[in-house]
Write a structure and sequence with these properties.
The complex is a heterotrimer of chains A (about 475), B (about 290) and C (about 290). With about 475 residues, chain A is α/β, with parallel strands linked by helices. Chain A has helices at about 1-30, 45, 60-75, 90-105, 120-125, 130-135, 145-150, 175-180, 190-205, 220-225, 235, 250-265, 280-285, 300-310, 350-360, 365-375, 385-395, 400-405, 415, 425-440, 445-465; strands at about 50-55, 80-85, 110-115, 125-130, 155, 155-160, 160-165, 170-175, 210-215, 270, 290-295, 315-320, 335-345. Chain A is globular. The relative contact order of chain A is 0.16. Chain B is flat, with a radius of gyration of 23 Å. Classes of the chains: A alpha/beta (about 475), B mainly alpha (about 290), C mainly alpha (about 290). Chains in contact: A-B, A-C, B-C.
């Protein structure tokens, strides 16, 4: 019996190697235009060492502490490159500062930008794509979690190197489930099941409502991906510049209708995604306003600590995969987080230095330490076998949920996620639609339609100014 | 009789005294402003390096006739109306109330001016916490609207107005107090001897002599009200449903989020012009009533 | 004309003390206290919350007085927020800007109030106009200018664009205009030149306004956020408001730490206020201008 199993495993391994290999070849293949900036990987050899590079990032707290530790390790381990970290407070501030620097010339050598900034990053024409470095250095990317690389690949070119990865997970109060007669180890896996659970929880009378719904357009993007639906046209902007949104379809209406029903029937409470209410959906679990919510795995570290501590013994927090719109959805969650871009303005030696640093950051060992210190999902598959990750998952199984979600569901254009130039404007359009639906009584269908209209207008406006 | 020589000397002295200020203004205020005005004539790309297209005043008419601009203008004016008169009346009232020889009045004066120690950011953090439905105190006091105050389309702008009034109260109080102190004691004595009631003394002595200060507060207060940005950025981000999208926030969104320098330039010129016209009107209409020594 | 009955006076007068009944005095104190309470409450609750644990802040009924003050929120805010360095930077930049603004404003206001010269009204309008230019659109151009001057990431870069103020010139002009004409004529007769008149007569008489301007300039400079963020490269020159924003990002689950940072950032201003409070109160008794 074991021989057959071995054969199957071997076949499976060979197959994945082939697929992985093909994938790596596809990635390493020359991209669309031959006009892509080249990556001078050999420039480091001839330069006077150490080459100093500046890294603008938006990490805070334990994230920053871990980044500092990792960077110190890198600086100490070799004498070619010295990295100087500069904290720019947050993703948006970092990008704002970078954009200002495009005019003044004050730029770093490597910068961390959010996943939604991809199209804009490309349009700045200020970066050397990681693809060029991969090609020049013959770098093997087969060990990377495929969806992570695909998230940042546009028209077959990988622009940044991914660094920190997160995705949405479902959080719930196990005690609430027990009280409501639900199985705390069998959390809802579809939106319909969430509704049913919310009804039961609210009926206990101990909770003001069932579900904490953050007013964040990000959720529409995630649920569309789960439903294996495109968010914008042109293969989610991956096959060409996206010009229109694609979420005003049956799937989008289903999602909007669900949100509307939940809020109108009092089964869900809403909170803003900005300002100091941004995590009320999670903090509300502790104050028994809600018993379930969905949020990014990146908060698991701080939030679970907050929720599970406290005088009353805290909350028994359960973490599960994000529920999907319908039971038969084949999609998966989107990769969230940020990635690192090589700045073109820097000298060839500095660009090579940045590439060396980025390779270090994405090594399995480093990613394991990074994951253990921050709760971000390691983007190397071999990282999960390392002790840091194993220990992390043993202590907080919720993190494993986030990792597994990246390997669940098909990897296609829908789960690659949308690439939009006017991303923030599109999000504003969706947010306005949600607010109109919840506070002005607009129907889900009409709300979605006005979101589509506003979003398309914004996209066309942006595209026309880029000259395409 | 002033000799021509003296006049010329006075003139050069005046320009000499004005030079430092004007130099700074020229380099850091007017140069950027005119550069921006020029920028409004172009459809600008999101990033430098891509070409910009000359469209002349088309962009001006397009942006200034858009519904988003008109909504923003309406919001800005509403905000100014909510904050400026209220703030001045409150500041003046407090200053008058505390402007006396009472035992311990110094403590009250310190408290009334204490909000001066708060920046816009600090005040926003403080009130943001107070308004927050989970950690804030207002829900406990029974004020718990759904949606919560700062997410509520009808309550968001008044809420931000309250934060602004509170934050500027200390400053207005100090301003009014310093103005009250320049009113000589003997004028009140004379009025009292004449048998004037306190109310009459207020209207006939205090108010006229305080009018330069009040005039200043109205003009500058309006200008600053139109420039409000920080509280909106920290508390409501222009929402919900663009109900707090004042012009400055609209400008910053065009700049930072849409990377549209051209549109932002048009909006900035509009904001400047509106403020200028308003100030000119105020100066014309109000300064006539101001009583200088 | 009948003797005016003892009534509540709106104006300060030592003579009135005897006229006040106890009831009226209590009413006044009561009113003052209620108003003071309303105004200071947000600040008070901030200080209280900064000394509680996060759980205590969210518990109901709320805690209005910390029985077990958690001072470690302050040490956290100090360390995590890098407050010592940021406070020093803020102090230096704010001092430069305050001195600069007071000086340029005094000079300009003097010209507007006491001198006759062509284009006076136009130039005054220009000064006022500087207040109407939205700050945000000047940023990029100013950044480029500062960068070209080589002042990126320096104290000069932080301070120089703000050394002049239309607000200050306007404020002091109003104050200077209230100097009585006969005083000016007397000074002229005594042979006072402009400089002497400015320093010996005008500025001392306008002291409350100058003090108010200094306070305002200090505040404005101390509370700047966006410009310091963009014109500094790293921690060496960053100011206290940036530290506060960093702190609030770092402590979303620890409101008490953020609020402790708020208190630390506001403390120098409170001290300043107490110091200048004496200035303003002294003006109360000075009052009349003797001819």
């Amino acid at each position: 019996m074991s021989r057959i199993r071995t054969k199957i495993v071997a076949a499976g391994a060979t197959l994945s190697l082939v697929v992985g290999g093909l994938g790596a070849v596809a990635l390493a293949a020359p991209a669309a235009a031959a006009s892509l900036p080249k990556c001078p990987v050999n420039a480091l050899a001839k330069a006077t060492k150490p080459v100093e590079i500046t890294f603008w990032h938006g990490m805070n707290r334990s994230l920053e502490e871990t980044l500092i530790a990792i960077t110190d390790e890198f600086n100490a381990s070799q004498s070619d490159v010295k990295v100087k970290l500069v904290n720019q407070i947050g993703y948006r501030e970092t990008f704002d500062k970078f954009k200002a620097g495009l005019t003044t010339g004050e730029l770093p050598d490597v910068v961390q930008l959010e996943d939604t900034a991809t199209q804009q990053a490309i349009d700045t024409q200020a970066f050397v794509p990681a693809q060029s470095c991969i090609k020049a250095d013959k770098y093997d990317t087969s060990d990377f979690v495929p969806r992570v690389l695909k998230r940042y690949t546009v028209e077959k070119v990988l622009w940044p190197m991914p660094f920190n990865v997160s995705n949405p997970v479902f959080l719930y109060d196990k005690a609430a489930f027990r009280l409501a007669g639900l199985d705390p180890n069998d959390p809802p896996s579809t939106l319909a099941e969430v509704t049913a659970a919310a009804e039961k929880i609210k009926a206990t009378g101990q909770y003001e409502s069932g579900f904490g719904l953050k007013l964040d357009p990000w959720y529409l993007e995630q649920w569309s991906s789960k439903a294996d639906e495109l968010y914008v046209n042109k293969e989610n902007g991956r096959a060409g510049r996206a010009t229109k949104v694609a979420f005003n379809d049956k799937s989008g209406r289903q999602i909007f209708t669900w949100m509307n029903d939940m809020v109108k029937s009092g089964l869900a409470l809403t909170n803003s995604a900005e300002g100091n209410s941004a995590f009320d959906n999670l903090l509300g679990i502790r104050s028994k306003k809600v018993a379930m919510s969905i949020d990014t795995s990146a908060t698991l570290g701080t939030i679970s600590q907050v929720l599970t501590s406290g005088e009353a013994g805290g909350v028994e927090l359960g973490v599960a995969p994000m529920p999907t719109p319908s039971a038969n959805n084949k999609g998966g969650v989107l990769v969230g987080g940020a990635a690192l871009y090589i700045v073109k303005q820097s000298s060839p030696a500095k660009q090579a230095a940045v590439w060396k640093y980025m390779k270090f950051l994405d090594e399995p060992e480093t990613q394991a330490t990074w994951a253990a210190g921050t709760g971000y999902v390691p983007l190397r598959e071999s990282s999960v076998d390392l002790p840091q990750v194993q220990q992390l998952w043993a202590e907080t199984p919720g993190y494993k949920v986030a990792y597994d979600q990246l390997l669940t569901g098909v990897d296609d254009a829908a789960t690659q996620g949308p690439v939009i130039g006017a991303f923030q404007d599109v999000r504003d359009a969706v947010l306005a639609a949600e607010q109109e639906m919840f506070t002005q009584g607009k129907s889900p269908k009409a709300a979605l339609k006005s979101a589509e209209k506003a979003a398309n207008k914004a996209m066309q406006e942006y595209n026309s100014r880029v000259g395409r | 009789m002033i000799s021509r020589q003296r006049r010329a000397r006075e003139m050069s002295l005046a320009y000499f005294l004005l030079l430092p200020s004007l130099a700074i203004f020229a380099l850091f205020v007017f140069y950027p402003f005119f550069k921006n005005f020029y920028l409004g004539l172009f459809r600008t790309p999101p990033f430098p390096g891509l070409p910009k297209t000359y469209v002349g005043f088309d962009q001006y008419s397009e942006v200034l006739s858009s519904s988003e601009f008109l909504n923003s203008l309406k919001t800005t004016i509403a905000f100014a109306i909510m904050t400026v008169p209220t703030g001045i009346v409150l500041g003046l009232g407090l200053a008058v109330l505390a402007h006396r020889q009472l035992r311990g009045v110094g403590i009250y004066r310190t408290i009334f001016s204490s909000t001066v120690a708060t920046s816009v950011a600090v005040a926003s953090v403080i009130f943001g916490t107070l308004f927050n439905p989970v950690v804030g105190l207002l829900p406990w006091l029974g004020i718990d609207p759904r949606p919560p105050i700062l997410d509520n389309p009808d309550l968001a702008l008044p809420a931000v107005a309250i934060v602004t009034i509170w934050q500027t109260l200390g400053l207005t109080f100090i301003l009014m107090s310093s103005g009250l102190q320049t009113i000589p004691e003997d004028l009140y004595e004379a009025a009292r001897v004449d048998g004037a009631t306190p109310t009459r003394r207020f209207w006939q002595v205090t108010l006229p002599l305080l009018s330069p200060t009040i005039f200043f507060a109205v003009v500058v207060g309006s200008i600053f009200a139109f420039q409000t940005f920080g509280q909106i950025d920290l508390l409501t981000q222009g929402g919900p449903l663009k109900r707090t999208n004042v012009l400055t926030y609209f400008i910053v969104t065009s700049l930072r989020q849409q990377n549209n320098d051209g549109k932002a330039a048009v909006l900035a010129v509009a904001l400047f012009s509106i403020t200028l016209v308003l100030t000119l009107i105020q100066v014309r209409v109000l300064e006539r009533r101001v009583h200088y020594a | 004309m009948p003797e005016p009955a003892p009534t509540e006076s709106v104006l300060p007068a030592k003579a009135n003390r005897g006229e006040h009944s106890l009831a009226r005095r209590l009413l006044r104190y009561g009113l003052l206290t209620v108003l003071a309470f309303i105004i200071v409450f947000p600040l008070y609750i901030t200080v209280v919350n900064s000394l509680l644990t996060p759980q205590q802040i969210t518990s109901r009924p709320p805690t209005f007085f910390p029985k077990d003050p958690q001072w470690d929120s302050y040490s956290r805010a100090w360390n995590v927020g890098n407050m010592s360095k940021y406070l020093v930077n803020s102090a230096i930049v704010t001092a430069i800007i305050t001195v600069g603004q007071v000086c340029t404003a005094i000079l300009a206001a003097y010209a507007f109030a006491f001198l006759v010269f062509p284009l006076k009204r136009t130039i005054f309008a220009v000064f006022l106009a500087t207040l109407m230019v939205p700050f945000e659109i000047t940023i990029i151009t100013n950044l480029t200018t500062i960068s070209d001057l080589g002042w990126y990431n320096s104290y000069q870069g932080l301070a120089v664009p703000f050394l002049a103020t239309g607000f200050g010139a306007f404020l002091l002009r109003q104050a200077f205009l209230q100097v009585p004409h006969d005083l000016r004529d007397a000074a002229a007769l005594d042979g006072y030149g402009h400089f002497r008149f400015m320093t010996r007569v005008a500025v001392p008489l306008a002291r409350p306004a100058v003090a108010a301007l200094a306070v305002f300039a200090f505040l404005g400079a101390w509370n700047q956020y966006l410009w310091p963020l963009l014109v500094t490269e790293d921690d060496k020159y960053r100011t206290v408001q940036i530290g506060l924003k960093q702190l609030s990002r770092n402590s979303i689950d620890q409101v008490n730490v953020t609020l402790a940072g708020v208190v630390i950032a506001a403390l120098p201003l409170v001290i300043l206020l107490l110091v200048f409070q004496k200035q303003l109160v002294r003006g109360l008794t000075a009052g009349a201008v003797k001819g």
